[in-house]
Design a protein that fits this description.
single chain, alpha+beta, 2 domains, twelve-stranded mixed β-sheet, three-stranded mixed β-sheet, 14 helices, 17% strand
Length: 442
Amino acid sequence: MFILDMIGLGLGNLRRHKLRAFLTALGIILGVAAVITSASVSEGKTREALSQLEALGAKNIIIRSQKPPESQQAQGGQQQSFVSKFGITREDYQILKDNFPDVETIVPLKSVGGQLLRADRRKTSQTFGTTPEFAKVANLRVARGRYLSQEDVDSKSAVAVIGAEVAKEMFPFDDPLGNSLRVDSKVVTIVGILAPVGLSGGAGAGLVGRDLNLDVLIPITTARELFGDSVFRRESGSFQASEVQISEVYLVAPSRDEVLAYAELAKRILEVRHPEMRDLGVIVPYELLESARKSALTGKVVGAFIAGIALFVGGIGIMNIMLASVTERTREIGIRRALGATRHHILWQFLVETGVLSALGGLLGVGFGIGVSAGLDKVVPLLPDAPMIGRYFSADVTLPTHITGWSIIIAFAVAAATGLIFGIYPALQAARQDPIVALRHD
């Protein structure tokens, strides 16, 4: 009953000074909103990055052919024509298969062609020969048509499955299915269109090294039969040719727990044939997934610390106003003491007021923070179309957010605690007032 009376007194005093109470709680409101908003933005970006990494396959080990450093630029900085041999060989691929008999699957990719052509349209080729298993290991889905089959591989069929962006760019007005597409001078028939892949930007695309939506996939036997092992490209006025038997190998470990051990074993096996691994790279999405989680945790801690500063400032504001309130209400304190109120009662009265003030500020901050977090996800994609400022944003700008329950609970709890902690000193000052002196105060 005593606590209820104190709460009633506290609410009554706050109602009498609504504007002052709101301004006092503003620091708490903004601090709580900052905690929730920063946590939701951090969580949204983290989930986006992790989903991109997981799309590469948590059990996958990606072994990639890459130009050794000395072949990446011409001597003396001059552009020149040359042919370079590097990367994974068919013998390497067979050795990997022999040494990993218990893996789920091993899938090769072979890069072919320099350009895609159709009528007057052309673009740099991202054509790869592969097997039907690649769809599963790379989490690809067919939107229309079908994927490559084992029959296509066995018969060396000149068929292709194209990415979503290839379909848009090369067939803007026609249905790609059943149509032909030229890869250099070779013609393939399109039998399937892939669903858009969420790796067109961000961490996933950086790991893959390309936008999967621009891929063209053909049977690996067809790739070798039509194109051989040499790839010719003309870029920026220079002509380059490379001889790569296999561009990438996806090795799928039996379980997540064995991914790192299998990756290390694969490195040791390949180092025997490729000293220092200068022309090979090994990517382990699971390893990067764990690293991303740790980085995300660090970001959350830093964000919470910065937002905590706002709460601290809000607490100082409450203490400042409550100290002024003690001085302003000295006569009231004297009257209450004369009527029988003890120092204990005065202490609790001021503590309850600061507690109610910080709790209300916390609740308003929670509502404001949730509203801002939800709004950012909707408003940011509209910024490119906004007048005057739209030109400063890219067309695909996004800011994914995800509101977490822990951020709401922690922010509110810290806000309430901040109000109480910073309200102790003013409450003690009020309780220590001499009732005789207080009654004589003007």
